[in-house]
Amino acid sequence: MSYRKTKIKNSIDWLTVIIYLILVIAGWFSIYAATYNYDQMNILDLSGRAGMQMIWILSSFIIGLALLLIESDWYDIFAFWIYLLIIALLIITIFVAPDIKGSRSWLVMGPIRIQPAEFAKFATALIVAKVMGDYHFKITKVQNLFTVLGFIFLPIALILLQKETGSALVFVAFALVMYREGMPGVVLFSGSFAVLLFVLAVRYSTEIWNATPAGEFLGLILILFFTIGLLYNYPKVRRNVPYILYVILGVCAVAGIISIFVSFNWCWVILLLLAFTILFFFFLFIKFRASTYLWIIFFAITSVGFLYSVDYVFDNLLEQHQKTRIEVTLGIIDDPSGAGYNVNQSKIAIGSGGLSGKGYMNGTQTKLKYVPEQDTDFIFCTIGEEKGFIGSVSVLVLFLILIIRLILLAERQRSAFRRIYGYAVASIFFVHLAVNIGMVIGITPVIGIPLPFFSYGGSSLWAFTILLFVFLRLDASRGDRL
Questions:
Q1: C-alpha to C-alpha distance for 235 and 446, rounded to whole angstroms
Q2: Does residue 318 contact residue 346 with C-beta atoms inside 8 Å?
Q3: How is 188-246 classified by DSSP, letter by letter?
Q4: How far is CA 177 from CA 43, 64, 139, 143, 152, in A?
Q5: CA geometry: angle at 256 spanning 232 and 211, to 5°?
Q6: Residue 450 pLDDT more than 70?
Q7: Most CB within 10 Å of its CB: which of 147, 189, 336, 449?
Q8: 401 and 418, same structural domain?
């Protein structure tokens, strides 16, 4: 064995490899359990999905080994070209892919189907690491921030054009990477706040409280108090907060008395108080000449604009099935035999597993095919039914160990490129896990995101393998001279 191969063998993180193997093999048996029928007894039968998944698994092992033998510097050198290649494939897919279940995201070549969107995550992780890993890169510079966002949003836009919303959503993982590398926390907070406003506006869009639209009112209340709450970050003006609150309470008291005699829209009262608060922040900007106050004003104004755009976005930009899934998730409508059927049957399957499950291949929901897509997006319900709470938690713990391990490996890198790529891999796995499990148990909308290493499919398994083993190769050469 050559010195180079010996060095890689000794430097590879075998704990991560072992976890990968356990998850892949467990996923293979889960697929067999989810697709098993009494006429097909052999797990190696290539006419069944378990047999085909075996082919994908063996080919993934070969890909992983090949990636470990490639010089680690090549991933840095060719990051831009890999990104361009995947972007070209995404563009081609839009025009040549057949319509499969409402999306045009698969390139069909005979018996093989490839989904370029899965590999776009790897390519984007490489280019983000390449750009942000530059010695002179500072994410706090607006130009640098928009450069990174441009590389991230280009594949998102192309994937959305393929009507593959689930795959596009995964790219939110890069926000976690950017936060780790110095992106201001307010950006991450603003994104989370926007999601909260969207949920409130949609959930209470049809409710009216005494001439006041409930969703609009609750959203404005949140914007007002979060805007005021930002003052607590600045000791010089923190003492002014009680006076603002006194004004708000006074205006609300007067409005409350008037509402006894005349019904009116309370949203106008909150908007008036927001206008007063924004003017106060503008006064602080003039007094202290601190641009931070302008950012707070910008936050308040854009939040109000976003709140009032939710109805338009929901009614005009989302597909009908997407709207229905969101409404089912938020409890606006109850459709157990329609849009909510998958989730309802999935929860029944998981709940019926109890503590220890019904036993391997003994799940009634699974065997009777009550849960659609139970070998792909809803594979976790098979685990819950057959292995119960203990089996489900065991799988989640394995994923948690893998993600934590990836973070630890990322932190020990001497190169910014390798560290950032490692965090991208960990973040992508985390988002996939969180959204897929949330979808299966009904706390997030059904958007078609696979469970890594478990869901049936060659594209996702290859993509996750490439993501992981490229990082393992980079980590194996962490001691090389930079």
A1: 45
A2: no
A3: HHHHHHHHHHHHHHHHTTT-EETTEEHHHHHHHHHHHHHHHHGGGG-HHHHTTHHHHHH
A4: 39, 24, 11, 18, 12
A5: 105
A6: yes
A7: 449
A8: yes
Cβ(464)–Cβ(452) under 8 Å?
Answer: yes
Distance from C-alpha of 211 to C-alpha of 20, rounded to nearest angstrom: 57
Statement to judge: residues 293 and 338 lie in one domain:
no
The two three-digit tokens of residue 35, written as one number: 């697709």
Per the structure, the count of domains in the chain is 2
- Cα separation, 16 vs 474, in Å, equals 13
Distance of alpha carbon 143 from alpha carbon 145, whole angstroms? 5
Per-residue pLDDT tens over the stretch 83-127: 999 999 999 999 988 877 777 888 887 777 889 999 999 999 999
H/E run at residue 108: strand 107-109
Q: What is the mean pLDDT of residues 413-433?
A: 95
In a domain, 198, yes or no: no
- Alpha carbon distance 324, 61 (integer Å): 40
**Do residues 306 and 361 share a domain?**
no
What is the rounded distance in angstroms from the CA atom of residue 246 to the CA atom of residue 230? 17
Whether the Cβ atoms of residue 353 and residue 386 lie closer than 8 Å to each other: yes
Looking at 325, 354, 383, which one is the last position of a domain? Answer: 325
Closest CA to 205 of 218, 215, 217: 215
Q: Is the pLDDT of residue 318 over 80?
A: no
**DSSP-based three-state secondary structure for 344:** helix
Structure tokens at 190: 């603003």
Domain that holds residue 104: 3-191+332-476
28-37, 52-61, 315-324, 348-357: least confident range: 315-324
382 and 318 share one domain:
no
- Report the pLDDT value the prediction gives residue 3, as an integer from 0 to 100: 52
- Quick one: how far is CA 136 from the chain centroid? 29
Contact of 355 with 384, CB cutoff 8 Å: no
